[in-house]
1-(5-phosphoribosyl)-5-amino-4-imidazole-carboxyl ate carboxylase (Desulfomarina profundi), 2000 residues
Amino acid sequence: MNRQILTTLLTDLKNGTLSLEETVNRLSTFPAETLDNACLDHQRTLRTGIPEVIFGAGKTPEQIISIASAFLKQNTILLATRVNEEKAAIVTEALPSLTYYQEAHMLTCNEQRESPDNYRGYTAIISAGTSDIPVAEEARITLSTLGHPVKTLYDAGVAGLHRILNHSSLLSAAEVIIVAAGMEGALPSVIGGLVSRPVIAVPTSIGYGASFSGIAALLGMLNSCAPGVAVVNIDNGFGAACMAEAINRI
Amino acid sequence: MNRQILTTLLTDLKNGTLSLEETVNRLSTFPAETLDNACLDHQRTLRTGIPEVIFGAGKTPEQIISIASAFLKQNTILLATRVNEEKAAIVTEALPSLTYYQEAHMLTCNEQRESPDNYRGYTAIISAGTSDIPVAEEARITLSTLGHPVKTLYDAGVAGLHRILNHSSLLSAAEVIIVAAGMEGALPSVIGGLVSRPVIAVPTSIGYGASFSGIAALLGMLNSCAPGVAVVNIDNGFGAACMAEAINRI
Amino acid sequence: MNRQILTTLLTDLKNGTLSLEETVNRLSTFPAETLDNACLDHQRTLRTGIPEVIFGAGKTPEQIISIASAFLKQNTILLATRVNEEKAAIVTEALPSLTYYQEAHMLTCNEQRESPDNYRGYTAIISAGTSDIPVAEEARITLSTLGHPVKTLYDAGVAGLHRILNHSSLLSAAEVIIVAAGMEGALPSVIGGLVSRPVIAVPTSIGYGASFSGIAALLGMLNSCAPGVAVVNIDNGFGAACMAEAINRI
Amino acid sequence: MNRQILTTLLTDLKNGTLSLEETVNRLSTFPAETLDNACLDHQRTLRTGIPEVIFGAGKTPEQIISIASAFLKQNTILLATRVNEEKAAIVTEALPSLTYYQEAHMLTCNEQRESPDNYRGYTAIISAGTSDIPVAEEARITLSTLGHPVKTLYDAGVAGLHRILNHSSLLSAAEVIIVAAGMEGALPSVIGGLVSRPVIAVPTSIGYGASFSGIAALLGMLNSCAPGVAVVNIDNGFGAACMAEAINRI
Amino acid sequence: MNRQILTTLLTDLKNGTLSLEETVNRLSTFPAETLDNACLDHQRTLRTGIPEVIFGAGKTPEQIISIASAFLKQNTILLATRVNEEKAAIVTEALPSLTYYQEAHMLTCNEQRESPDNYRGYTAIISAGTSDIPVAEEARITLSTLGHPVKTLYDAGVAGLHRILNHSSLLSAAEVIIVAAGMEGALPSVIGGLVSRPVIAVPTSIGYGASFSGIAALLGMLNSCAPGVAVVNIDNGFGAACMAEAINRI
Amino acid sequence: MNRQILTTLLTDLKNGTLSLEETVNRLSTFPAETLDNACLDHQRTLRTGIPEVIFGAGKTPEQIISIASAFLKQNTILLATRVNEEKAAIVTEALPSLTYYQEAHMLTCNEQRESPDNYRGYTAIISAGTSDIPVAEEARITLSTLGHPVKTLYDAGVAGLHRILNHSSLLSAAEVIIVAAGMEGALPSVIGGLVSRPVIAVPTSIGYGASFSGIAALLGMLNSCAPGVAVVNIDNGFGAACMAEAINRI
Amino acid sequence: MNRQILTTLLTDLKNGTLSLEETVNRLSTFPAETLDNACLDHQRTLRTGIPEVIFGAGKTPEQIISIASAFLKQNTILLATRVNEEKAAIVTEALPSLTYYQEAHMLTCNEQRESPDNYRGYTAIISAGTSDIPVAEEARITLSTLGHPVKTLYDAGVAGLHRILNHSSLLSAAEVIIVAAGMEGALPSVIGGLVSRPVIAVPTSIGYGASFSGIAALLGMLNSCAPGVAVVNIDNGFGAACMAEAINRI
Amino acid sequence: MNRQILTTLLTDLKNGTLSLEETVNRLSTFPAETLDNACLDHQRTLRTGIPEVIFGAGKTPEQIISIASAFLKQNTILLATRVNEEKAAIVTEALPSLTYYQEAHMLTCNEQRESPDNYRGYTAIISAGTSDIPVAEEARITLSTLGHPVKTLYDAGVAGLHRILNHSSLLSAAEVIIVAAGMEGALPSVIGGLVSRPVIAVPTSIGYGASFSGIAALLGMLNSCAPGVAVVNIDNGFGAACMAEAINRI
């Protein structure tokens, strides 16, 4: 409820077009509406393209079906993350219009077409190893479902620098770069030293022993000596995509 | 050394303008130059506005003076971080053209004028408490030295939500938002839930006991349930500024 | 056994009303009785309404049946926590009078009616997300089984502040507030900043990566910058209910 | 701004007593005011007795003097925590009306008289050892400055149980119990097993080696097997006092 | 091989009773024998009663059968720890002379009779809760298999002090006390404050959330403020028994 | 106060030998005395030889002087640990009868003569390196002040096994062995594999980097694969001495 | 592309043998080629004998089959690590020429014969316990597949020093020593103190409780007080073998 | 004492050349001698060139002077590490023949000349940043004092890859490579991916916040995805040098 709407409302009251009681009622929801304004992810979503997202990890298939059905009725983009194969089978049987991406563990529906006009450029998604691809794919599916242009380069870790250097144009032409890496998580530092674009580093839980399920990669990325690197949670491809969307969306 | 320079060089060789030996010599530094291309932070700096930065924490005043002098000869922007007062006194006595920012623990020289045309908008810098201000100031001085437009809102923590909500227009009009917070580090989540701009969260080491010198805030920010939040190292105001510069620079 | 009782007892001995042997016997249990006084959880339980509780996590169904049967004979309130579905099926087949709450993983029997007269007011139980509900339910079932008045507000996390602000009257009218939250665990700080009632914060293990099974939420809550917040163990809805009972019981 | 105020405002507009512009202006601060309502710690403070508090740890003496002066002008209770002796000397020289409590590291002014009528009873503050007394004193000074009735029992650790058992009446007659303990932090468990009152456990950083500056005590308290125990941050005597105030204040 | 045996050996050589070659052979195993002296757990075992022990956790049933068979041929005491039920079924089918203790997860054979004459007294084994009993049982089976006199007191945690105080004579008459406790692990401190006997504290992994699989109990015990307490690894009932054997064996 | 004493007391009352008032007085301290029984470290101290100990780390010189003076009046053994040189200078100036052991950071008074008849044998104290000697000395001074026979072997770490093996008789003839080691803390495992005596392992904070102030040594000792090893807190030479006293005292 | 090749290329250009465009093209791939030079693990592999390795942990059997097939076509040595039995069964059914080593969890093909001439000597692989053998075997299979001479000594932990001392010649004659140990991880320190050869320490995850899945062993090894010890990741037998290969290969 | 020496000894006994008593005496020191053989670091030192080293961190200047004097009498190489400037001033005043290296915090004496014939090649020492130089220097001084050929390349971190790539010949021609790096510690991975020589990675404590005094770098290096990398303790330049010496010494 911006100033203009408020002025109209009060003018209506003054003019008698609106009763005092009705005006009070509507204004007494004003704080709520203001806050709805702030949090009405629903409306903001439709405007900015970031849909409501179902965090599938702690939910039963039935709960996912129920929430997804509500979304489908509104015809909004549907994104569900961390849905394992078993759950996905049950959900997609009930809701056949949903697409399941096995590697990304995601369910989507009502995907947007790629809409370059809404973005400053494309987001490059890099994975250090093949094992990091599921996290990279979570970012990719999230973005492409929103219509966000994406290019990918997978399996380009620091132990073979030529792989990343050979594709430096892919990196330097990107608007945003997402880098998913496990183990020592050094790739964002190397890329951050090569290009001037914002790098969103996603530590993955790939590794063993002293990788501590991604802590080694997380710490490595937080301590990156290269400028222009920021970090999201371990395995949080979805979060990286949200940050890229926030940066890249016009 | 781009394709054009290379063509010229070889044409010169072909034409006899350049001796074979000289060409070999110059090309034998080609990988270096190519790599300089990749890493020539120097050239890239001049182009993107991110200067070489002196990390003052592990250096003696003499080392800082020596490096800073080299920078001053090139007339480039000079930024030194984590320079305590004692060191700063020695350095500024030797190099009086440097400015010392006591709260940010920074030395600068050859600051740029604010140059809005180079940026998509301004960066909003928010601190949760007054104790977080030094970290916020490290970000602010870094950005303003580069000519990056900045607005600040300090002491606006979650325990008094009205403080942040009263300035929601400052947030929603920003291109990028940097949020410095210690203790539980909840402010980026709240702001991330209110606006659609990219939020760069900076955990600070403010707190005691189970804040573990910023770990509590760091973990809180990494686990933010709000979209569009990415995190830099504890107390790394400079790193947040670099990320903001990478995002906001046209 | 205070000084007065002791004087009477010894006077009785001196007067011959009490035999030497009997006095010795009673006094020789004196330390024990004093300590029984202190620890007679049984008697205190009947008086204060906090029942003996079966911690089901490390017990076999047979052990649970055996202990529960002993309780049932005394007709006392029965509460068993952390009983998974598989165990519950075996136990309830053997003891059909028990009720199983699947979401809370609890078994109860001999529940009390809600008895507002015994309490200063009601306890509000808030969950930040839907995934935190099982922990909130553990608190709710514990309290309602004791007859403690409870109101709930689920899925009201900080990323959508209006949800909590819209229900501020529910919060401000409560005598005690229990807040269950995972991930960054910021909700207790926000609520603690809005109301003057004691807030019992329950970190949950909901999250992934750097949530470290609830450590992020735990640390966030311990470092809350809002006054009037205290914390119980991760996922300890039962413990939060005990604290609420201790505070709210007249 | 409640419904009544809103109705009056709008009636004034309708009656022409208030201009449209002025009404818009005042209503456009409505969300802010509503949130001020929620967070107006100032007003709530005056009402509930919890004053604004200066966290002295990260502040210079000059900053403390400046903030304290502002408080003194309002004649409100002044509490500053974590002010070391050196800072306190400077502050009290500038502001002689302030009282410095050396052991608690606190500065106060405008202390309230003890006002039993405002409380359900007294708060008992227990310290396990003599070294935990500064933390206990931070709680005591906070409460007594608010007028909150307090009784103390210091140096009553679990290695000599008789010390605590000899004072069981002090414990059982209290409305709230604060227990400060370092090292293994076992005292809250023992007290929680003896009485039915809410126990606020404060781990202290007293200890060495594997006490890890209070982590051992913190974990011990969070895992307490006794009911009715909740925990605040390490060394957070002030936070324990705030929780006690929230519980005990009528 | 002590000096006497060595003298005899060499006298035999000098006398010609032993050939040079045989003497060389036997002496060339001398360092080995010397070291065997140090490490000949075999011989020392027979002498001190501590048998070779099979750590079953990382072994296949086949490996356990193979090692156990070798032991059985020597008719020595056999102890295998951390053998789950599934493995035990296979092993005991192959080696029916072995006894399986389900709660302690142990296999034994050739148990010694209780032999009080070999010990200074009995070892008291206390468990804080019922869930700690398997760890306590690992200690008990280890000791009783060696013939070590043992008395037990299970489920006597600090939340009900009378349980432990009512059995103070069991404690004070013991030669050694083993205390197994999970969660906050406070029981050894309380017992260490009551008696002057050596207390071997065994943290257990019982608990959840911030018990961190026994870390909370471990830290609590290491920081015990009571004298005469030493600690073994989490869940290491066997290690506690070995320490008790070393102390108590005459 | 056992049953016999109680019977006598009451008989005296019945007989008129004791007045009612006096009996009440003595019995009204009964719970206290009973608990004194449990905790009367004072009486138990005189009996077992373990004196009250002053933990000097968190105390001012004035506090130490005050407590020590009280002890001196009772002519009991005085032990104060963790008293740095600066504090010690002040204390010994005020109380010249105290002896300061600089390396052990201890103050003592009224030391006992060595009294072999009260002990089963001697305690061997081993340090791995020279830097571990202060911790070993804290154990040695504690024991020798009590009259406990002690032998020492310092600087005998695992990197030079012959040092420890050359003194195997010192080890095997001991009743108890205390081993202080920092860095990797491997020495207790090696010694535990060589002898059948109880080994009390004391991790020290000696080391740097990944020694984490003694955590590496602590974990190494807790995981010792040798039988008969138990562990005390990091740098806790005093605690090791208490355990040795509890084991070795007849 | 060394100086000679570069000279030839440019001479060709000068001579007209090569067109300007072609020279530019080839030189513009120069950085790539240089980097290929640096990273051409393929060529370097063939030269040094270290094959491309498949990290099986995060891959499906299908992915392993696909990658392995590509390798088999090139007839290179094939090594796949961390392939569990289930996956191995599927892979070896599809690719029968592969050998599966169950204990080492490895698949190999095209193994090299042992080629002592390529090495300075043999690598000794020691395991502390039988449970550490799988990690030791990962190192052994890796090395022997490369043709690297290896000798092994398994189950030679510090609790029985004679086992290692009896085989000191095996150690002292080795060129490199790999030591795999779990629990307290003390064996590398002991061996490092006995011989002058480089010791590669491999912590294993064998242990329980405070071994924290290998952290105790890892820290112990990093803090080794013996010279000539370096450490690889927990359970990383393969990494230890790579280090040994790098050291020992002529 | 090998088999031959033993045969001679016994033959002498048999022949009467050696008395029985003398033979017994010599053989009874046999284990000791064997172990001396194993641990005689002194002799082995003279032979291999690794001197006894004084760990200066926990020692007083007086202790260092005393130990150093003993070394000087033997005319052996003297190395003392972690000697701060203040201590060094006192020591060098007493022992003027010692040289102090301020950046490496080392004292040396009787340095060896560089002796390439004793080594397979040179060791390259790389530091990622200028702040890592002190650690690199500790390695360099250690090696050069032993006569070990060394080349250095300082300030060549991953954020500017060209710096390291420009010196690839320095790396590829080295026999061993030591890499000191703080912050994210990524440099060893990059170098390990470029060359086939053994890389000894030294994490440094350089950094702040989530570098956790070198933990981030340590974990990064342990998880290196490049082959041929092993790790020493944080800041342990000396340990890296010992490993290099063990590898490189002929």
